[in-house]
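Researcher: Please generate the 3D structure of the following complex. Treat every line as part of one assembly.
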Amino acid sequence: MKIATWNINGIKARIEGLVTWLKQADPDLACLQEIKSQNEGFPSERFEELGYNVAVHGQKSFNGVAILSKRPFDETMTGLPGDESDVQARYLEAVVSVDGGVVRVASIYLPNGNPVDSEKFPYKLGWMDRLRDHIKGRLSFEEPFIIAGDYNVIPAEGDVHDPQAWAGDALFRPETLERFHALLNLGLTDAYRACHHQSHQYTFWDYQAGAWQKDNGIRIDHLLLSPQAADRLKSCEIDRFTRGWEKPSDHVPVWLKLDV
DNA sequence: ATGTCGATACTTTATCGA
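Model: Done. Output below.
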């Protein structure tokens, strides 16, 4: 089973590129972030034509996550628990049946958190605390669970072209990394890191300042695995070639193969 | 060199968010 994550930065702007990639990459499950669309405006037909079932948690203008699945959804859940006042569409979870069990998957768009002296940074940290609490509960199910998405977290110095330049940024602040480690310490596995040891393998390059041409990137899109998913992990790769396409997203797809 | 994009609205340019 092939499971992918991609922050597409706007479904309307990216629909043709996304369909092209889906046809050639052919994932069984695709977690999308930053669809920047309400549920009503989401072009589900374009994916249903390709054999996908579609779950959307949308919002006008900003944020928004979706999951495409070749298998029907047994259940879906929208919104990260823990704060009734949080209306931002950043969390979608789904369960599908496979031979001999289920696979649970979450599509997450973790808050950026910049600027750090604004209310956005504590919102990010609080969201990470809530994510940890929620995932901790889910782990008691002992299922293969893949938490995939744009984490807006640079895990280590080897995941950024210029660590100095990012030192004070919300994506690389000690408070952020501390919470990312707390998440991993629940017993989760960073799928890409489990498959590859080389550093400077990025998933995002800014549109500005020729970042792509200079390979000035960061690795912030991750697939974290429950122990039951990690046991079945076969491979994990970054499709960096889409960054060179016409009208690219600033993020590229990351995918893994599970032996289920 | 804070140099680009995408979405939105009291729109055709400014604002926000990333």
